[in-house]
Amino acid sequence: MWKKIIRSYDYSLIVTFFLLCLFGLMMIYSASSVTAVQRYEVASDYFYNKQKIHVIIASLFFIGAAIFPYKAYKNSKFLLVIVAGISFLLLSLMVFGTVSNNAKSWIRLGGASLQPSEFAKLVIIIYMSAVYAKKQKYINSFNKGVTPPVILLVFFCTLIAAEPDFGTAAIIFFIGCTIIIASGMKLKSMWKLVVLGLICAVVLSPLILLQKDKIFTEEKMSRITGYLEPFKYEQGDGYHLVNSYLAIGSGGVTGTGLGQSVQKLGYLPEPHTDFIMAVIAEELGVLGVLIVVGGLGYLVLRGFYTAVKCRDPFGAMLAVGISSMIGIQSFINLGGVTGLIPITGVPLPLISYGGSSLLLLSLSLGILVNISMFVKYEKIYKKNRSSI
Protein backbone atom coordinates (compact mmCIF):
# COMPACT_ATOMS: atom_id res chain seq x y z
CA MET A 1 0.00 0.00 0.00
CA TRP A 2 2.70 2.51 1.01
CA LYS A 3 4.63 1.79 -2.18
CA LYS A 4 1.53 2.62 -4.22
CA ILE A 5 1.05 5.83 -2.26
CA ILE A 6 4.67 6.90 -2.76
CA ARG A 7 4.47 6.14 -6.50
CA SER A 8 1.21 8.11 -6.73
CA TYR A 9 2.73 11.43 -5.67
CA ASP A 10 3.07 14.09 -8.36
CA TYR A 11 6.81 14.73 -8.10
CA SER A 12 6.69 17.38 -10.81
CA LEU A 13 4.61 19.54 -8.44
CA ILE A 14 6.98 18.84 -5.55
CA VAL A 15 10.12 19.64 -7.56
CA THR A 16 8.59 22.84 -8.99
CA PHE A 17 7.67 24.02 -5.49
CA PHE A 18 11.17 23.54 -4.10
CA LEU A 19 12.91 24.98 -7.17
CA LEU A 20 10.80 28.16 -7.00
CA CYS A 21 11.49 28.51 -3.26
CA LEU A 22 15.25 28.15 -3.78
CA PHE A 23 15.21 30.50 -6.79
CA GLY A 24 13.27 33.05 -4.72
CA LEU A 25 15.78 32.69 -1.87
CA MET A 26 18.66 33.40 -4.24
CA MET A 27 16.93 36.46 -5.70
CA ILE A 28 15.98 37.79 -2.27
CA TYR A 29 19.68 37.80 -1.32
CA SER A 30 20.54 39.65 -4.52
CA ALA A 31 17.64 42.12 -4.34
CA SER A 32 17.78 42.93 -0.62
CA SER A 33 21.51 43.18 0.16
CA VAL A 34 21.80 46.94 -0.53
CA THR A 35 18.35 47.81 0.86
CA ALA A 36 19.16 45.96 4.09
CA VAL A 37 22.24 48.11 4.70
CA GLN A 38 21.06 51.48 3.37
CA ARG A 39 17.41 51.55 4.44
CA TYR A 40 17.14 49.18 7.40
CA GLU A 41 20.74 49.48 8.69
CA VAL A 42 21.18 45.74 9.16
CA ALA A 43 23.59 43.18 7.69
CA SER A 44 23.44 42.68 3.93
CA ASP A 45 22.27 39.07 4.35
CA TYR A 46 19.60 39.93 6.96
CA PHE A 47 16.56 39.27 4.75
CA TYR A 48 18.24 36.26 3.13
CA ASN A 49 18.85 34.62 6.52
CA LYS A 50 15.29 35.29 7.68
CA GLN A 51 13.83 33.94 4.45
CA LYS A 52 16.07 30.87 4.74
CA ILE A 53 14.40 30.09 8.07
CA HIS A 54 10.99 30.76 6.48
CA VAL A 55 11.78 28.30 3.67
CA ILE A 56 12.85 25.56 6.10
CA ILE A 57 9.70 25.95 8.23
CA ALA A 58 7.47 26.24 5.17
CA SER A 59 9.01 23.09 3.68
CA LEU A 60 8.10 21.13 6.80
CA PHE A 61 4.52 22.37 6.58
CA PHE A 62 4.45 21.53 2.87
CA ILE A 63 5.59 17.96 3.54
CA GLY A 64 3.12 17.58 6.41
CA ALA A 65 0.21 18.85 4.29
CA ALA A 66 1.27 16.59 1.40
CA ILE A 67 1.08 13.54 3.70
CA PHE A 68 -2.05 14.43 5.69
CA PRO A 69 -5.31 13.23 4.00
CA TYR A 70 -7.08 16.27 2.59
CA LYS A 71 -10.56 14.77 3.20
CA ALA A 72 -10.09 15.34 6.95
CA TYR A 73 -10.38 19.10 6.39
CA LYS A 74 -14.10 18.59 5.65
CA ASN A 75 -14.76 17.79 9.33
CA SER A 76 -17.36 20.19 10.77
CA LYS A 77 -15.47 20.76 14.04
CA PHE A 78 -12.26 21.54 12.15
CA LEU A 79 -14.12 24.03 9.94
CA LEU A 80 -15.61 25.72 12.99
CA VAL A 81 -12.20 26.05 14.66
CA ILE A 82 -10.38 27.55 11.67
CA VAL A 83 -13.21 29.95 10.78
CA ALA A 84 -13.57 31.12 14.39
CA GLY A 85 -9.78 31.41 14.76
CA ILE A 86 -9.22 33.53 11.66
CA SER A 87 -12.30 35.67 12.42
CA PHE A 88 -10.90 36.37 15.90
CA LEU A 89 -7.48 37.29 14.50
CA LEU A 90 -8.97 39.59 11.84
CA LEU A 91 -11.15 41.32 14.45
CA SER A 92 -8.23 41.61 16.90
CA LEU A 93 -6.30 43.63 14.31
CA MET A 94 -8.58 46.58 15.16
CA VAL A 95 -7.05 46.65 18.66
CA PHE A 96 -3.69 44.88 18.48
CA GLY A 97 -2.80 45.35 14.82
CA THR A 98 0.47 46.96 13.74
CA VAL A 99 0.53 49.37 10.81
CA SER A 100 2.83 48.47 7.91
CA ASN A 101 2.64 50.08 4.45
CA ASN A 102 -0.40 52.12 5.58
CA ALA A 103 -2.41 49.00 6.49
CA LYS A 104 -3.15 47.69 9.99
CA SER A 105 -2.70 44.09 8.93
CA TRP A 106 0.01 42.63 11.15
CA ILE A 107 0.05 41.12 14.63
CA ARG A 108 3.51 41.29 16.19
CA LEU A 109 4.55 39.29 19.27
CA GLY A 110 8.15 39.85 20.23
CA GLY A 111 10.27 39.24 17.15
CA ALA A 112 7.57 37.22 15.35
CA SER A 113 4.89 38.67 13.11
CA LEU A 114 1.75 37.23 11.53
CA GLN A 115 -0.54 38.50 8.76
CA PRO A 116 -3.97 36.90 9.40
CA SER A 117 -5.36 37.99 6.03
CA GLU A 118 -2.90 35.65 4.27
CA PHE A 119 -4.29 32.63 6.11
CA ALA A 120 -7.85 33.84 5.53
CA LYS A 121 -7.29 32.88 1.86
CA LEU A 122 -6.79 29.20 2.69
CA VAL A 123 -9.57 29.19 5.29
CA ILE A 124 -12.10 30.54 2.78
CA ILE A 125 -10.95 27.95 0.20
CA ILE A 126 -11.37 25.04 2.65
CA TYR A 127 -14.65 26.32 4.10
CA MET A 128 -16.39 27.13 0.80
CA SER A 129 -15.20 23.88 -0.79
CA ALA A 130 -16.39 21.80 2.17
CA VAL A 131 -19.80 23.47 2.45
CA TYR A 132 -20.55 23.37 -1.27
CA ALA A 133 -19.38 19.73 -1.41
CA LYS A 134 -21.80 18.82 1.39
CA LYS A 135 -24.63 20.78 -0.24
CA GLN A 136 -24.39 19.21 -3.70
CA LYS A 137 -27.97 17.88 -3.50
CA TYR A 138 -29.39 21.39 -3.11
CA ILE A 139 -26.54 23.47 -4.50
CA ASN A 140 -29.03 25.65 -6.39
CA SER A 141 -31.25 26.32 -3.38
CA PHE A 142 -30.50 30.00 -2.73
CA ASN A 143 -31.12 29.92 1.03
CA LYS A 144 -29.70 26.48 1.87
CA GLY A 145 -26.99 25.93 -0.73
CA VAL A 146 -25.82 29.23 -2.16
CA THR A 147 -25.90 31.90 0.53
CA PRO A 148 -24.10 30.61 3.70
CA PRO A 149 -20.54 30.45 2.26
CA VAL A 150 -21.04 33.80 0.48
CA ILE A 151 -21.86 35.47 3.81
CA LEU A 152 -18.50 34.38 5.27
CA LEU A 153 -16.72 35.45 2.06
CA VAL A 154 -18.21 38.96 2.29
CA PHE A 155 -17.45 39.11 6.03
CA PHE A 156 -13.76 38.29 5.50
CA CYS A 157 -13.43 40.69 2.55
CA THR A 158 -15.03 43.51 4.57
CA LEU A 159 -12.69 43.04 7.55
CA ILE A 160 -9.59 42.91 5.33
CA ALA A 161 -10.68 45.91 3.23
CA ALA A 162 -11.14 47.85 6.49
CA GLU A 163 -7.44 47.40 7.41
CA PRO A 164 -7.28 48.76 4.63
CA ASP A 165 -5.85 46.04 2.36
CA PHE A 166 -7.88 46.12 -0.84
CA GLY A 167 -5.41 43.94 -2.73
CA THR A 168 -5.80 40.94 -0.42
CA ALA A 169 -9.56 41.52 -0.12
CA ALA A 170 -9.84 41.43 -3.92
CA ILE A 171 -7.79 38.20 -4.10
CA ILE A 172 -10.04 36.48 -1.53
CA PHE A 173 -13.18 37.70 -3.33
CA PHE A 174 -12.04 36.36 -6.71
CA ILE A 175 -10.91 33.07 -5.13
CA GLY A 176 -14.43 32.71 -3.74
CA CYS A 177 -15.87 33.41 -7.18
CA THR A 178 -13.79 30.63 -8.77
CA ILE A 179 -15.00 28.14 -6.15
CA ILE A 180 -18.60 29.18 -6.77
CA ILE A 181 -18.10 28.62 -10.52
CA ALA A 182 -16.56 25.18 -9.81
CA SER A 183 -19.27 24.18 -7.31
CA GLY A 184 -21.72 22.93 -9.92
CA MET A 185 -24.10 25.81 -9.29
CA LYS A 186 -26.36 26.71 -12.22
CA LEU A 187 -25.90 29.98 -14.06
CA LYS A 188 -29.29 31.19 -12.84
CA SER A 189 -28.17 30.92 -9.20
CA MET A 190 -24.93 32.75 -10.00
CA TRP A 191 -26.88 35.60 -11.59
CA LYS A 192 -28.96 35.88 -8.43
CA LEU A 193 -25.72 36.36 -6.50
CA VAL A 194 -24.62 39.06 -8.95
CA VAL A 195 -27.93 40.90 -8.57
CA LEU A 196 -27.73 40.59 -4.77
CA GLY A 197 -24.19 42.00 -4.89
CA LEU A 198 -25.31 44.98 -6.96
CA ILE A 199 -28.17 45.68 -4.54
CA CYS A 200 -25.74 45.58 -1.60
CA ALA A 201 -23.39 47.95 -3.43
CA VAL A 202 -26.24 50.43 -3.99
CA VAL A 203 -27.34 50.20 -0.34
CA LEU A 204 -23.78 50.70 0.94
CA SER A 205 -22.89 53.50 -1.48
CA PRO A 206 -24.01 56.31 0.92
CA LEU A 207 -21.76 54.86 3.63
CA ILE A 208 -18.85 54.66 1.17
CA LEU A 209 -19.39 58.30 0.20
CA LEU A 210 -19.42 59.34 3.87
CA GLN A 211 -16.15 57.48 4.48
CA LYS A 212 -14.54 58.35 1.13
CA ASP A 213 -11.68 60.28 2.77
CA LYS A 214 -10.71 57.20 4.77
CA ILE A 215 -11.26 54.73 1.93
CA PHE A 216 -9.81 56.72 -0.96
CA THR A 217 -6.75 58.03 0.86
CA GLU A 218 -4.11 60.19 -0.78
CA GLU A 219 -1.69 57.25 -0.79
CA LYS A 220 -4.19 54.98 -2.58
CA MET A 221 -5.17 57.62 -5.12
CA SER A 222 -1.48 58.20 -5.86
CA ARG A 223 -1.29 54.58 -7.07
CA ILE A 224 -4.02 55.30 -9.61
CA THR A 225 -2.28 58.50 -10.76
CA GLY A 226 1.07 56.72 -11.01
CA TYR A 227 -0.55 53.90 -12.99
CA LEU A 228 -2.32 56.15 -15.50
CA GLU A 229 0.48 58.63 -16.16
CA PRO A 230 3.74 57.32 -14.65
CA PHE A 231 6.15 59.36 -16.76
CA LYS A 232 4.25 62.60 -16.16
CA TYR A 233 4.75 62.09 -12.41
CA GLU A 234 8.05 60.20 -12.54
CA GLN A 235 9.43 62.06 -9.51
CA GLY A 236 6.22 61.54 -7.54
CA ASP A 237 3.33 59.12 -7.89
CA GLY A 238 4.83 57.36 -10.91
CA TYR A 239 8.31 56.95 -9.41
CA HIS A 240 7.92 53.26 -8.48
CA LEU A 241 6.48 52.17 -11.81
CA VAL A 242 8.99 54.17 -13.88
CA ASN A 243 11.90 52.53 -12.05
CA SER A 244 10.28 49.15 -12.55
CA TYR A 245 10.13 49.88 -16.29
CA LEU A 246 13.79 50.92 -16.24
CA ALA A 247 14.78 47.69 -14.48
CA ILE A 248 12.87 45.51 -16.95
CA GLY A 249 14.15 47.47 -19.94
CA SER A 250 17.76 47.42 -18.72
CA GLY A 251 17.71 43.64 -18.41
CA GLY A 252 16.74 43.09 -22.02
CA VAL A 253 17.08 39.54 -23.29
CA THR A 254 20.18 38.35 -21.44
CA GLY A 255 20.09 40.50 -18.28
CA THR A 256 22.89 42.47 -16.65
CA GLY A 257 24.05 39.51 -14.56
CA LEU A 258 23.18 38.12 -11.15
CA GLY A 259 23.76 40.77 -8.48
CA GLN A 260 24.32 43.54 -11.04
CA SER A 261 20.97 45.34 -10.78
CA VAL A 262 21.17 49.14 -10.65
CA GLN A 263 17.52 49.78 -9.75
CA LYS A 264 17.81 47.87 -6.47
CA LEU A 265 20.33 50.46 -5.26
CA GLY A 266 17.64 52.61 -3.67
CA TYR A 267 15.46 53.29 -6.72
CA LEU A 268 12.94 50.48 -6.39
CA PRO A 269 11.02 50.88 -3.09
CA GLU A 270 10.68 47.17 -2.17
CA PRO A 271 13.10 45.27 -4.42
CA HIS A 272 12.88 42.05 -2.38
CA THR A 273 9.07 41.99 -2.00
CA ASP A 274 6.65 43.79 -4.35
CA PHE A 275 9.19 44.52 -7.11
CA ILE A 276 11.37 41.43 -7.00
CA MET A 277 10.27 40.49 -10.52
CA ALA A 278 11.71 43.76 -11.84
CA VAL A 279 15.08 42.84 -10.30
CA ILE A 280 14.86 39.33 -11.78
CA ALA A 281 14.15 40.78 -15.24
CA GLU A 282 17.04 43.24 -14.91
CA GLU A 283 19.62 40.73 -13.71
CA LEU A 284 18.59 37.53 -15.50
CA GLY A 285 16.65 38.84 -18.48
CA VAL A 286 14.14 36.70 -20.33
CA LEU A 287 15.49 33.46 -18.83
CA GLY A 288 14.77 34.63 -15.28
CA VAL A 289 11.28 35.75 -16.22
CA LEU A 290 10.56 32.43 -17.94
CA ILE A 291 11.73 30.45 -14.90
CA VAL A 292 9.31 32.31 -12.62
CA VAL A 293 6.33 32.61 -14.96
CA GLY A 294 6.82 29.07 -16.26
CA GLY A 295 7.08 27.60 -12.77
CA LEU A 296 4.06 29.46 -11.38
CA GLY A 297 2.09 28.76 -14.56
CA TYR A 298 2.85 25.05 -14.25
CA LEU A 299 1.58 24.98 -10.65
CA VAL A 300 -1.66 26.68 -11.68
CA LEU A 301 -2.29 24.48 -14.73
CA ARG A 302 -1.36 21.31 -12.87
CA GLY A 303 -3.78 22.29 -10.12
CA PHE A 304 -6.64 22.77 -12.57
CA TYR A 305 -5.74 19.46 -14.24
CA THR A 306 -5.95 17.76 -10.83
CA ALA A 307 -9.36 19.38 -10.25
CA VAL A 308 -10.67 18.06 -13.57
CA LYS A 309 -9.47 14.52 -12.80
CA CYS A 310 -10.72 14.51 -9.19
CA ARG A 311 -14.11 12.83 -8.75
CA ASP A 312 -14.52 14.11 -5.19
CA PRO A 313 -16.31 17.51 -5.30
CA PHE A 314 -14.47 18.69 -2.16
CA GLY A 315 -11.04 17.81 -3.59
CA ALA A 316 -11.89 19.33 -6.97
CA MET A 317 -13.00 22.65 -5.45
CA LEU A 318 -9.97 22.71 -3.16
CA ALA A 319 -7.68 22.27 -6.16
CA VAL A 320 -9.50 25.01 -8.08
CA GLY A 321 -9.32 27.39 -5.11
CA ILE A 322 -5.61 26.81 -4.49
CA SER A 323 -4.72 27.09 -8.18
CA SER A 324 -6.76 30.26 -8.63
CA MET A 325 -5.15 31.80 -5.54
CA ILE A 326 -1.67 31.33 -7.00
CA GLY A 327 -2.79 32.50 -10.44
CA ILE A 328 -4.66 35.59 -9.22
CA GLN A 329 -1.91 36.65 -6.84
CA SER A 330 0.74 36.19 -9.55
CA PHE A 331 -1.31 38.22 -12.03
CA ILE A 332 -1.83 41.09 -9.57
CA ASN A 333 1.89 41.27 -8.70
CA LEU A 334 3.15 40.95 -12.27
CA GLY A 335 0.43 43.29 -13.53
CA GLY A 336 1.51 45.95 -11.04
CA VAL A 337 5.22 45.61 -11.86
CA THR A 338 4.57 45.89 -15.61
CA GLY A 339 1.96 48.66 -15.39
CA LEU A 340 -0.92 46.49 -16.56
CA ILE A 341 -2.87 47.27 -13.37
CA PRO A 342 -2.26 49.66 -10.43
CA ILE A 343 0.35 48.61 -7.87
CA THR A 344 -1.32 46.92 -4.88
CA GLY A 345 1.56 45.66 -2.73
CA VAL A 346 0.76 41.97 -3.31
CA PRO A 347 3.85 39.69 -3.11
CA LEU A 348 4.86 37.30 -5.89
CA PRO A 349 4.04 33.71 -4.76
CA LEU A 350 7.05 31.69 -3.49
CA ILE A 351 9.48 34.32 -4.80
CA SER A 352 8.96 37.50 -2.75
CA TYR A 353 10.27 37.87 0.79
CA GLY A 354 7.73 37.12 3.52
CA GLY A 355 7.05 34.39 6.06
CA SER A 356 3.25 34.50 6.26
CA SER A 357 2.81 34.37 2.48
CA LEU A 358 5.33 31.55 2.04
CA LEU A 359 3.83 29.49 4.87
CA LEU A 360 0.32 29.87 3.48
CA LEU A 361 1.39 28.91 -0.05
CA SER A 362 3.39 25.93 1.23
CA LEU A 363 0.40 24.61 3.17
CA SER A 364 -1.86 25.16 0.18
CA LEU A 365 0.46 23.45 -2.30
CA GLY A 366 0.99 20.58 0.13
CA ILE A 367 -2.79 20.06 0.15
CA LEU A 368 -2.81 20.21 -3.66
CA VAL A 369 -0.08 17.55 -3.81
CA ASN A 370 -2.12 15.35 -1.47
CA ILE A 371 -5.23 15.73 -3.66
CA SER A 372 -3.17 14.86 -6.74
CA MET A 373 -1.79 11.80 -4.98
CA PHE A 374 -5.28 10.56 -4.06
CA VAL A 375 -6.50 11.07 -7.63
CA LYS A 376 -3.64 9.01 -9.07
CA TYR A 377 -3.79 6.38 -6.30
CA GLU A 378 -7.52 5.80 -6.72
CA LYS A 379 -7.07 5.55 -10.49
CA ILE A 380 -4.35 2.88 -10.12
CA TYR A 381 -6.26 1.03 -7.37
CA LYS A 382 -9.52 0.88 -9.34
CA LYS A 383 -7.71 -0.15 -12.51
CA ASN A 384 -5.96 -3.01 -10.73
CA ARG A 385 -9.17 -4.01 -8.96
CA SER A 386 -11.19 -4.07 -12.19
CA SER A 387 -8.55 -6.24 -13.90
CA ILE A 388 -8.81 -8.94 -11.22
From TrEMBL:
Record keywords, A-Z: Cell cycle, Cell division, Cell shape, Glycosyltransferase, Membrane, Peptidoglycan synthesis, Transferase, Transmembrane, Transmembrane helix
Topology of the protein relative to the lipid bilayer: Multi-pass membrane protein
Subcellular location: Membrane
GO terms for cellular component: cell division site; plasma membrane
Enzyme Commission code(s) on record: 2.4.99.28
Gene Ontology biological-process annotations: cell division; peptidoglycan biosynthetic process; regulation of cell shape
TM spans (from-to): 12-32, 52-71, 78-99, 119-134, 146-162, 168-186, 193-211, 275-301, 313-332, 352-375
Reaction equation(s) it catalyzes: [GlcNAc-(1->4)-Mur2Ac(oyl-L-Ala-gamma-D-Glu-L-Lys-D-Ala-D-Ala)](n)-di-trans,octa-cis-undecaprenyl diphosphate + beta-D-GlcNAc-(1->4)-Mur2Ac(oyl-L-Ala-gamma-D-Glu-L-Lys-D-Ala-D-Ala)-di-trans,octa-cis-undecaprenyl diphosphate = [GlcNAc-(1->4)-Mur2Ac(oyl-L-Ala-gamma-D-Glu-L-Lys-D-Ala-D-Ala)](n+1)-di-trans,octa-cis-undecaprenyl diphosphate + di-trans,octa-cis-undecaprenyl diphosphate + H(+)
A GO molecular-function annotation: peptidoglycan glycosyltransferase activity
Described function: Peptidoglycan polymerase that is essential for cell division.
Protein name as it appears in the record: Probable peptidoglycan glycosyltransferase FtsW
